Fold this protein.
Amino acid sequence: MLLLAGILFVSGCAEDTQEETGVEEATPVEEVAVTEIEEEPSDEEEGIMPDEEPETGVNETAEEGNLTIVGAAEAAGYYTFASLVRDAGLEDTLNEGTYTVFAPTDEAFDKLPGSFDDLRDDDQVMNTVLTYHVVQGEYMASDLENGQMLTTVQTGELPVAISGVKVTIGNSTVVEPDIVASNGVIHGINEVLIPPEVERRLE
């Protein structure tokens, strides 16, 4: 009996102590997931993403000077001249080195006598005629001088005459100067230049 009374006494004291202190067992605190907030880039940090390419607004295929002589002549509308150069096998030659080319307009070829058509199939004659329009080196319109003599690839000579803004090469007038190619320059002319030795065959 004494033992039971002692146990009850101790238990009562423990309950009284808990009531007096008002301390309760701590409730486990649940972990709160922390959401990482992405910071929006400021105006100063904005730029081109690594995988993005800037828009230049430039059409590279239309840039001046990105075609070789024959391609540039054709792109500028000198179709007959470009076609004859290809038919004569001169395209590769004119695409190598640096040249100044006096390219007749399509209308200029149309003005030639019918006998010229008979010479189109003669590669030697066409080679002579076409190279008579080609000068070694690059001569922009501003480089040409009155009284100047230009030696052609065909070894002929073309006299240059300048009067005000008018520039004549032989018996032709420059109607479209400075068509820039990647390996030279083209000047459009209104007459076909015929070497003396070929001119006799057209009479």
Remarks:
- The first helix runs from residue 2 to 21.
